Every structure is written in C-alpha cells, then in structure tokens.
C-alpha cells in the first residue's frame, strides 16, 4: 500500500477547459483544394476568418512571418499547412506497432522534451494531409502483405492527431476503415481531451486509444499547451465507456526529487477515476526520458528556462536507431523507475498489461 503525499494543494478556482486548436495562419497547396477534405478545411478556415496563403509545397514554407528564429518557431506552432501526402511508404514504428500511418506531421503542443523538436528540424508547423483515401489504400496493401498476421498502425508517430481531429476528421476515417479490417489495428496516443467525434463511431475493438499521462510535476513543468491531466482522464473515461480498448503511455518517465510520490499519485488517481470496464483490457507503455545531443541543443535554444535535466555526465549512452547516440538513465535508476512504477500499476490494475519499458 502506498501512502501518498499530494504534490500540490488542489486549486479551488475552476479553470476554463482547454479549447480546440484554432490556427492563426493556414497555408494550402493548390492541389489540396481538389480533394473534398481540402475544400472542407478551406471552408472551415474562411468561416472563421483565419488568414490563409497558398504554397507550392507543404514541405517548404519559406515566408513564415516572425522576426528571428524564436518568434518564427512560436508562429509555426500555430500554423497549419494543408497538403497532399506524396510518400505513401510507411515507416516502421517499433515497439508500439508495425507501421506509422501518416495523417499529420507536427503538433501545437509545446512539450519541452518532444522528439519532434529534432525530427522536424526547421519545419515545426502542423502539416495535415487531405488524401486520406490514398493513405488508407496504402494501409490496406500493408495489411494484405502481412496476412494472416495482424498489422498494427500507429497514427501518432509524428503528431498528436486528436488535437487536430476537429479540423481534419482523419482519425475518424482511419477508425472506421480499421473496424472493417479483420487483420488491421489502429492505435494512437494523445495529450488532448477532444474525443467527442470518436465516441459514436463503430470501432469493432480495432482501435486502441492511449492517453499520455505523467506525474503532476512533469505535466506542470514540461507540457505547455496540452490538455490538463484531469481533462485527459475524463476523456479516457469517455472512450472506455464507448468500448474502445484503452491504454496509457507514461512518458517520459523523469527522475526528479519526489518522483516516487509523483508516480504513485498518478497511478492512484487513474485507478480512482476510471470506470470498472476500463480495467478489463488496459495497457501501459513505459518510456524513460532520453535525449540526443542534437535534441539537447535545440531544446535549450527553444525553451531556455527549462528545468529538464539533460546532463550527459549523469546518463548512460545508448545506440539509437537513427544513428545518433541517445542518453538514458543509468542502469540503477532505470531499474528503480521500472520496478516502482510496475508495482504501482499492478497494485491498482491487477489485470493490466505492461507492453514495454524502454
Ligand atoms: S503533445 Fe505530443 S506531439 Fe505534441 S508537442 Fe507534446 S509530446 Fe510532442
């Protein structure tokens, strides 16, 4: 039994719910407007009076407003780019799925540790793709190639697709498609609470919705511009009631003064909040904090006051899949984190499953 010391007194002032993302500027590739989704997004943009421009390619936005790199970065995070996805070869997505299914690239969140900081480099704006029909057709080919094995697709490798679902509707299309595929499965993870459009869909248990959760310290200090913990949990309750397989990704797991209380409190709060049906098929994925030297340099430039600890001397080097060393916690710290969080999970969710710790 864990004795909990709340990390912070509960605030009594009700806060406004986290709103839907409304971009401040939108770019369209001309070709995107020949797709129904492109037309719909244009209509949505015009109805709201959002300024828009045309661009020759969603991969090369050269006239972003803003003085200097920092201001341009902030503006880019509020900029939507609507284009046609040309590359229909899917990347691998281990350990969570076989393939990454590309419906968007970029995110409006400002999580200090986010790996998109590095992978998107100078293109942090939010790209959405209107040719979901082509993307779904490609997914179908991947499923057929691997038959009779089940093929799982991860829709959140390069963005948080729920945060832009009210603009694109792409997740709903994928969920509906996958519901009809005996050998296809979908999963995505989110830090947003806007699940309403998904609740009435026929999903056939083929989509697992996971919420990214963390200790209060981590959410408060490193996850600006995302939904609050309570909002994510309320959304988790709703998707559990809608019968979706549910999961939680605890990432990045961070070693800080008081981490035991923080992670114990997290798991206790989850157990308290979830309806009993959520516990039947509940998964957890555990990812310790890691960074590369490139990421460290970018993060320190973009969030100069961050409290994120990135001391290479304190870390253990691990060879990364993309050819860059990454820095994870030392073996003893890793074990302590894994063991403690695993015990808390099974204490509260005896039927839960831990998919991996990495
Ligand atoms: S919500 Fe997810 S994708 Fe968006 S910035 Fe945060 S970690 Fe990155």
From TrEMBL:
Radical SAM core domain sequence ranges: 93-321
Entry EC number(s): 4.1.99.14
Keywords for this protein: Lyase
Domain of life: Bacteria
InterPro entries: rSAM, SPL, SPL_Bacilli, SPL_firmicutes
Pfam families noted in UniProt: SPL (PF20903)
Molecular function as annotated in GO: 4 iron, 4 sulfur cluster binding; DNA photolyase activity; S-adenosyl-L-methionine binding
Enzymatic class: lyase
Gene Ontology cellular component annotations, sorted alphabetically: endospore-forming forespore
NCBIfam families named in the record: photo_TT_lyase (TIGR04070)
Protein name: Spore photoproduct lyase
Gene: splB
């Amino acid at each position: 039994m864990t004795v909990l010391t709340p990390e912070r007194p509960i605030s009594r002032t009700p806060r406004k719910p986290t709103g839907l993302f409304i971009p401040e500027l939108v770019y369209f590739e001309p070709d995107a407007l020949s797709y129904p989704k492109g037309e719909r997004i244009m209509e949505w943009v015009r109805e709201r009076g959002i300024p828009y421009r045309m661009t020759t390619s969603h991969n090369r936005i050269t006239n972003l407003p803003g003085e200097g790199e920092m201001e341009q970065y902030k503006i880019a995070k509020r900029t939507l780019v609507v284009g046609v996805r040309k590359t229909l070869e899917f990347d691998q997505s281990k350990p969570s799925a076989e393939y990454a299914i590309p419906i968007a690239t970029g995110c409006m969140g400002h999580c200090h540790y986010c790996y998109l900081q590095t992978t998107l480099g100078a293109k942090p704006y939010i790209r959405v793709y209107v040719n979901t029909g082509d993307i779904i057709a490609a997914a179908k080919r991947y499923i057929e190639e691997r038959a009779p094995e089940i093929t799982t697709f991860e829709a959140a490798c390069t963005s948080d697709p729920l945060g832009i679902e009210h603009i694109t509707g792409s997740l709903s299309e994928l969920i509906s498609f996958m519901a009809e595929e005996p050998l296809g499965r979908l999963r995505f993870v989110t830090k947003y609470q806007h699940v309403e459009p998904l609740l009435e869909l026929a999903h056939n248990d083929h989509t697992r919705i996971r919420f990214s959760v963390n200790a209060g310290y981590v959410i408060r200090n490193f996850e600006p511009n995302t939904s609050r913990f309570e909002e994510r949990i309320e959304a988790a309750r709703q998707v559990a009631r809608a019968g979706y397989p549910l999961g939680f990704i605890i990432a990045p797991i961070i070693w800080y003064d008081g981490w035991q209380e923080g992670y114990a409190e997290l798991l206790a709060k989850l157990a308290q909040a979830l309806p009993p049906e959520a516990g039947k098929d509940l998964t957890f994925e555990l990812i310790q904090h890691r960074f590369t030297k490139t990421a460290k340099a970018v993060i320190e430039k973009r969030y100069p006051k961050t409290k994120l600890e990135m001391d290479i001397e304190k870390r253990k080097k691990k060879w990364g899949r993309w050819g860059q060393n990454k820095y994870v916690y030392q073996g003893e710290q890793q074990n302590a984190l894994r063991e403690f969080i695993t015990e808390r999970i099974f204490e509260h969710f005896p039927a839960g499953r831990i998919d991996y710790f990495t």
